[in-house]
Predict the 3D structure of the following.
Amino acid sequence: MASIVEVEKLAFALPESERALLAAHLLESLPGILEDEDEGIAEALRRGAELDENPSIGLSLEQFDQMFKSR
């Protein structure tokens, strides 16, 4: 059986389109990891809808950076 290092080396030698296809197949083979026990996804969707309705309530990247740096 090939080691992960050997498989990785072969995978990186593939053209980009084939690597992307391989990555998609590998990801599809894994079990789902998103769980919404704390309703975080629902909250994110709600906030996204609020921003769609009123973009002025959001921050620009520059504003966020300034706030982050000032902490």
